[in-house]
Every structure is written in structure tokens, then in C-alpha cells.
Amino acid sequence: MLYIKSFTFNPFQENTYLLYDEKGNGTLIDPGCFDLAERKELLDFVTEKKIRITQLLNTHCHVDHVLGNAWAKKTFGVDLFIHREEASVLKAVEVYAPNYGFVGYESSQADGFLVEGDEIKVGDEVLKIIFVPGHAPGHVVFYHKASNQCIAGDTLFRGSIGRTDLPGGNHELLLSKIKSELFSLPDETVIYPGHGPETTIGFEKTHNPFVGKNARP
């Protein structure tokens, strides 16, 4: 069984996800924790549940999703994996992070790259890597077929989609990829987004004003 614990961190109200199995094998995704209280909250949960975090993943590398990368790498002794197209996005954060008030941001580098269509494991649980660019050039999502759950980053939200006006964004590409990649998942698939509440593929197919059946042309 795959358990998913969400935390909401930093002024952007970013959702950080900790995935773990019944044996305590864990994977941390998009650690947005920046201040001491946020990092303590995450660490306390890991300690209480006796979770062994074995890998660190980024869906994409905008500032709000990577604030805790360097801390997590050192604290848990893990490697960081991102899509190759996000390397320059991650590098840029150290330049602009202070502009958002994140003084003292510590940069990090990827130790390996995620490849579209490959699989990664949380213990014995298998996640498929799906490439959904548009919000960011190398944005990936992680789909757990056995439970129909998807860590979707900033691609699809409840009633919305990721913004596409940042460097590397492409509005038409994001719309296309949501329809071809995410909407090919079962309707009951639960979407865990990078911000805000969870949703389902079925709900967004019907109600999403950008990509749903009644979306504006």
C-alpha cells in the first residue's frame, strides 16, 4: 500500500508530498519547506512514522518547490532527481530567490535525471514518470497505477491549470499534454496538485474551465 502525506509550506502555500509504504520506505517530492518550523514539522512526521527516505524528486524546479532540496539532501542523505530540462530552471532559483524574500536560500544540484516513461519505486510500490511540460519545460508527474493516485505538481489543479507566463511556459502545450497524458488516466484517479486541494481526473474532465468538456475554445 502507498501512503501519501501532504504538507503545505512557504508563502506560496506549496504542497510537499511524502510517499511511503507499509515497511517505512519513503520518497520526498517537492520539498518546499524553508523555515525551521516547516522543516521540523516534516522531520517530526518522518521520525514518528519511522520512515526511511531513500530518494528526493522534483516535479519541476520553480522556487516554491525546491526551497528544501539542499536541506533534505543533507538531512536524509539522499540524491535528487529531476527532468533534464529542469536543470537550468533549478540553477536560476539561486539568482531570483532573494527577490521573493528567501534570503539564505541554499542551492542544490541534481544527482540524476528522470526519464519519461520510466518507473521509480517507493519500496515495492511502482510510480510511472509522465512528462507534462507547459508550466515548466521539464515538468513530470508521478502516477501510482495500483491505487490510481498521481502527484501532479503544477499541471492540473481543482478547477484550474498551471500558469504558463513564466520562462519556459507554453499554454497550448500544457493544455495539449493535460488532455493527452493526464486525461488518459482513469476518471477515478486522484490528483494531488502542487497547490490547493486534491481533485480527480473525472471531475476535471467535466468541470475544468480550461480543459474540461465545456472549456472555452
Automatic annotation (TrEMBL):
<protein>
    <submittedName>
        <fullName>Glyoxylase, beta-lactamase superfamily II</fullName>
    </submittedName>
</protein>
<dbReference type="InterPro" id="IPR001279">
    <property type="entry name" value="Metallo-B-lactamas"/>
</dbReference>
<dbReference type="Pfam" id="PF00753">
    <property type="entry name" value="Lactamase_B"/>
</dbReference>
<feature type="domain" description="Metallo-beta-lactamase">
    <location>
        <begin position="13"/>
        <end position="195"/>
    </location>
</feature>
<dbReference type="InterPro" id="IPR036866">
    <property type="entry name" value="RibonucZ/Hydroxyglut_hydro"/>
</dbReference>
<keyword id="KW-0479">Metal-binding</keyword>
<feature type="region of interest" description="Disordered">
    <location>
        <begin position="196"/>
        <end position="217"/>
    </location>
</feature>
<keyword id="KW-0378">Hydrolase</keyword>
<dbReference type="InterPro" id="IPR051453">
    <property type="entry name" value="MBL_Glyoxalase_II"/>
</dbReference>
<keyword id="KW-0862">Zinc</keyword>
